[in-house]
Amino acid sequence: MTEAGPARPRPHILIVDDEKILGLEIAEYLTVQGYQAEAVLSGREALARLRDDPSIEVMLTDLRMPDMDGLSLATAAIALRDDEYALEVVILTGNATIADAATAVRLRAVDFLTKPIRLATLKTAVAHARVSAVHRRAQWRDQQAARRLHTHTSEALRTLQSRVGQLQSALSQAEESESKNSDDARDAFMSLISHELRTPLAPIIGYAGMIEGKPDRLSPEELRNFAKEIRQSGERLEREFSRIADLTGLMAGSPVIRHDECRPDLILLMLARSHAARLAERGQSVSLDIQCREACQSDGPRIRQAIEELLDNASRFSPSGSVIRLAARRMSDSIGFEVHDAGPGMTEDEQHFALQPFRQVDMSLSRPKEGFGIGLTIANRIAVLLGGRLALTSTPGQGTVAALIVPFVPVDETDR
């Protein structure tokens, strides 16, 4: 037998009647029916309990009481609660008038029971009232969630619009420092950005519009699904914006280079672990071929960033079921970090084209591979920044090997 979990709180019912015995009998009966029921003698006591305990969902109140009649109590109780802690009221009476009944309806009392009360009728009335209270509370939560989601989505859209402006400004600065082929780069960039931004923005705008148009009619499951689509599309945009910002920084300025001790084998091991889940989603895996474990002086984070771009590029173009191989080899005065993929391969002209920013071998807007075409460019810029180079070895139909080759600088024993 499994251990029982914590007991779930039972529905909470409040009975208000100046006839103590009757109130206790009703509370006892409802407790037997599975409710958490309690009885109080006056309207003042009832309002105090309602202020202290938001779990009270249903209030049964006698119509005729000396200090505060049931209709006055119902008015005060309903005003005390909004739909976050919705309360439903059932009126109990022995001698009601038509005017009393009309007032109860205006107050939105869910039922009007005449004494002596049949237990079956009481049970049905309480069940109905509780269902109504639970529904109103759930609807309030869903509406609040929809409003928050719409607010966050609107803020995200404004942020994205601002980012686009920043990227265009950054591109202009990069073009000034890279005057050669600037027109082609700008045209390629604008063509790509109009397509690559439109793709994730479409679900963001579409789902946000649906939430804004009918937030009260969407189920919690629909809201969760819409939120997931918006989040994933936003994450994709954020990822691409960060990469473009990195590239423009590499192109426009002189980034600071670190000279710390780093281990080639540890860099590849961490990359393999951190990317295993994403590769698995595409039906891919990674293998390691580490032939250099000797520490050297270089910028480890930059090396890792470059290899991440090469690994992501390899994954984009490799089929499901393929294995991407990461290798580290020591040469005479350098280290080669290699990424072997099983993609379609490239001709020499295509390799040269692929190294240009915002270019892909397939530039058609109907191409199956998403992205801005900057992975190889970022890796190449980092290689040059570190005093090395990026080498591509590729044959159409046989995949590609991208090698980040950086100088091997031995660790100074006196600085270790």
Structure explained in plain terms:
With 416 residues, the protein is α/β, with parallel strands linked by helices. The protein has 3 domains: 12-117, Response regulator (Rossmann fold, 3-Layer(aba) Sandwich), CATH 3.40.50; 140-252, Helix Hairpins; 260-415, Histidine kinase-like ATPase, C-terminal domain (Heat Shock Protein 90, 2-Layer Sandwich), CATH 3.30.565. Helices cover 53% and strands 16% of the residues. It has 11 helices and 12 strands. A 5-stranded parallel beta sheet has the order 2-1-3-4-5, sandwiched between helices. β3 (56-62), α3 and β4 (88-93) form a beta-alpha-beta unit. It is elongated. The two termini are 59 Å apart. Mean pLDDT is 78; it is low at 1-6 and 361-369.
In short:
With 416 residues, the protein is α/β, with parallel strands linked by helices. It folds into three domains: 106 residues, Rossmann fold, CATH 3.40.50.2300; 113 residues, Helix Hairpins, CATH 1.10.287; 156 residues, Heat Shock Protein 90 (2-Layer Sandwich). Helix content is 53%, strand content 16%.
